[in-house]
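Review session, final week

We close the course with one last complete record, chosen because it touches almost every idea we covered. It is Glycerol-3-phosphate-transporting ATPase, a protein from Thermus thermophilus with 362 residues. Go through it on your own first, then we will talk.
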Amino acid sequence: MKGFRVELQELSKRFGVVEVLKGLSLEVKPGELVALLGPSGCGKTTTLLLVAGLYRPSRGRILFDGRPVDHLHPKDRDIGMVFQTYALYPHMTLEENIAFPLRLKRVPPREIKERVGRIAELLGIGDLLGRRPAEVSGGQQQRAALARALVKEPGLLLLDEPLSNLDARIRLQARTEIRRLQLDLGITTLLVTHDQGEALAMADRVAVLAEGVLQQYDTPETLYHRPANTFVAHFIGDPPMNLYRGRFTPQRFEGEVVWPFPEGWTPPFLGEGFLGVRPENLQVVWEGEGLPARVVLREALGREGLLTLALEAGGQVKALVPGDVPFRPGDGVRVRYVPEALHFFDPQGRRVGDGVAPARGA
């Protein structure tokens, strides 16, 4: 399969007086998997439906390989789509469901059988083709829906929350399988999800949306290490970044938390702004150098623990620690960090500086 190059140019969508998508521009390279990520109501599903042709844009253009497709009916856009509910016909077998788009295109029966069998084997459901959707598991239904989208060999695959109806264990397996298949086929893919773990694990690039506006479009690594603004900084990462409003002075940050800086080091700007630091970039020790603090709360997260710490200088901070270190509420500790682990944002929440946070414990 050869994937399209997809361009969205100043794409907007209005429902009555409400503008749910506001001037979205981005490009998806051929064979790339791009995730549209954001909270409910951010415009990600609207974007997908615009690309599919199920909505018409209020403003802007959609191009496939440089050709405008705004005027084309969905069936003429050469796309495959997998919905959250899978939308399989319950009275048909999996084979009949997968073959349905080929029959609509009047593909010869022998070719239909060959193509359905090939894609079913690729997705591991070749021995289930005679069963109806109610007779297979949710994961197998999801594979059948994916097979139906891919059997017509589209130039673009659209995935609308395709894993949200699966339980956690199957979801992890399914996202790996979808990504492997997408890479093997080289098909351009747009994935809509509210799950940042899913987006960061599967996508080449991620478009983070909030209130219909593109906040940042970048690789997962860049979103994590160099968030463009405070929304992305807090939205990307689990647990989320510690983020505080206050004022930078040469010696410290003062606001919702008091954060002294190392001697001889100054922040990239002075005055009002936001300070951020990820819990995994802090090191908590019993004694020695570091910011004096006291453990307020410990939350067990399996191999790690999440501490809520009250800093002696003022305010609270969260830090990740190894799960086998016995910190308890009331313990006095020290919090260590390196300045490169800090993130700085101006009063409007825009990133200042281009530092990359080090690995945990550095």
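Two points worth writing down before the exam:
Residues 237-352 form a domain with the OB fold (Dihydrolipoamide Acetyltransferase, E2P) fold (CATH 2.40.50.140).
The chain has two domains: 6-225, 237-352.
Good luck, everyone.
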